[in-house]
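User: Sequence in, structure out. Go.
Assistant: Echoing your sequence, followed by the structure tokens.
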Amino acid sequence: VPLVLYATERIHPFYKGKDHRVSIIKAIIYTGNVLALYMTKPPAFKYKSGMYLFVKCPDISKYEWHPFSITSAPGDDYLSVHIRTLGDWTTELRNTFAKVMFMYELKTIC
């Protein structure tokens, strides 16, 4: 039974056909290793407070999806998640955004 639940959870985004591509509007790294991502909200994407979404970052892994609670309000025109870096994948996600943010800062300074 645990294997079936694990497999079902992993194919869930594909099975439901709810694979939405989004653009990152803003990323902030807070103290305590918290990464906040603000994304465009796909058209007709509806959710209620307390719901979660699955995030995949192909630069880290092409097939890994990770669930995160949605931290934006349903009426906002964007989606946000706040991710605490606790494991390998979330640490790599934070590091990926840290590199991009550093390169952007260099471009705006020079």
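User: And one key feature?
Assistant: The two ends are 57 Å apart (CA to CA).
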